[in-house]
């Protein structure tokens, strides 16, 4: 979700391809599944495979040449082992909570995690990268269909590929950073045209996943971007109100995205794309924090909470960083706390769980 450079890094197509290649190779070694250390008695999905931005990046950016990182304190202070993992949060993120709720495993690991084991691929990984977006300015999804299932085990690989849940969380950077925070697109597009560009890029990505064998694809809407602390600071005036232009852009994009998903479900045989509205859920928490057990919704826990995110949220902010992050909706100036994520994920599973699992 975050991009301190003002550009979204884009959905990483080379990594996307590797997952299908790796799944095919690993599937040929079915004995690995029997040795997995995960209780999967309640799981019906073989795997969850995630693409997107910093909302669900569990540490892929740790090994990428980018300043969009968070593998340092105070990030991860409430995670298992109280250590930073590269998750843009104080603790777990939605992808972790989702795989745990579905009985697949405890955490969804980063594909670029150097400690990743072969059996981890059988139950899914995250390719999400902080700063990613749909805008093809920095991301052109390439076709690598010929590499799918190269190796062996086509039947087992096909089962994993076609029956897994693919989750896509993207687009916030395109509006908050690429469009509003830099001049790269505003001179060329107005918001209606820019959201058309985003939807077209998103649709192409979904169709590529479909072409690679994916059938069940969950797509999260954009959140109320204008109400995250950093956007309040940058565009909310002296009172740090929500940025209405950013929220209106997110709402317009969501409407177009939902319609495109309906269209793709009609167009693609066997496709099951699920539009997941998180805009309303997060806005409700922000507007009514006390009803959800929070005290602060307009700034983050880290530092002043007004602008700190990624490298700006660090040990130097310890004096100002809050002691009790459970009182805060946001951990830094862009990303919710683990507590807020848990509420949002529980609501998502309650509303869409039957379609996703």
Description:
The chain is an alpha/beta fold and 357 residues long. Helices cover 36% and strands 8% of the residues. The chain contains eleven helices and six strands. Helix 1 (13-27) packs across helix 5 and helix 3 (94-101) crosses helix 11.
Question: Keywords, please?
Answer:
two-stranded parallel ribbon, four-stranded parallel sheet, 6 strands, 357 residues
| Low-pLDDT segments | 2-10, 14-18, 28-42, 136-152
The SSE order reads HHEHHHEHHEHHEHEEH
Largest sheet: 4 strands, parallel
Quaternary organisation of the protein chains: single chain
- Radius of gyration, in angstroms, nearest whole number: 19 Å
First-last Cα distance: 25 Å
Helix content: 25-40%
User: What's the number of helices?
Assistant: 11
Counting helices, strands and paired strands, the structural category is alpha/beta
Mean pLDDT: 84
Q: What general outline do the C-alpha atoms trace?
A: globular
Relative strand content:
5-15%
Number of strands: 6
What strand order characterises the main sheet?
Answer: 1-2-3-4
Tell me briefly what this model is:
This protein is an alpha/beta fold and 357 residues long.
């Amino acid at each position: 979700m975050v991009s301190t450079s003002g550009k979204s890094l884009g959905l990483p197509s080379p990594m996307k391809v590797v997952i299908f290649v790796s799944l095919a190779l690993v599937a040929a070694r079915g004995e690995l599944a029997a040795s997995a250390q995960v209780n999967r008695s309640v799981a019906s999905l073989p795997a969850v495979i995630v693409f997107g931005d910093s909302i669900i990046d569990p540490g892929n950016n740790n090994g990428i040449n980018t300043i969009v990182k968070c593998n340092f304190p105070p990030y991860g202070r409430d995670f298992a082992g109280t250590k930073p993992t590269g998750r843009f949060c104080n603790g777990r993120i939605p992808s972790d909570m989702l795989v745990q709720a579905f009985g697949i495993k405890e955490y969804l690991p980063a594909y670029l995690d150097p400690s990743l084991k072969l059996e981890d691929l059988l139950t899914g990984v995250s390719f999400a990268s902080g700063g990613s977006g749909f805008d093809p300015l920095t991301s052109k999804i390439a076709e690598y269909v010929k590499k799918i299932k190269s190796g062996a085990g086509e039947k087992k690989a096909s089962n994993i590929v076609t029956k897994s849940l693919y989750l896509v969380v993207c687009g916030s950077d395109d509006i908050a950073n690429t469009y509003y925070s830099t001049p790269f697109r505003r001179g060329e597009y107005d918001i209606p045209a820019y959201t058309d560009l985003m939807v077209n890029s998103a649709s192409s990505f979904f169709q590529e996943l479909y072409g690679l064998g994916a059938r069940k694809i969950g797509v999260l809407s954009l959140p109320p971007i204008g109400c995250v602390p950093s956007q309040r600071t940058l565009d909310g005036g002296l009172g740090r109100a929500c940025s209405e232009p950013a929220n209106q852009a997110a709402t317009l994009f969501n409407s177009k995205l939902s319609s495109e998903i309906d269209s793709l479900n009609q167009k693609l045989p066997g496709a099951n794309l699920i539009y997941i509205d998180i805009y309303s859920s997060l806005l409700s928490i922000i507007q009514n924090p006390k009803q959800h057990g929070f005290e602060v919704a307009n700034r983050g826990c880290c530092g002043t909470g007004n602008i700190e995110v990624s490298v700006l949220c660090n040990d130097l902010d310890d004096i100002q960083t809050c002691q009790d992050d459970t009182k805060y909706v946001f951990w830094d100036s862009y990303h919710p706390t683990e507590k807020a994520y848990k509420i949002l994920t529980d609501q998502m599973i309650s509303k869409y769980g039957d379609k996703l699992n």
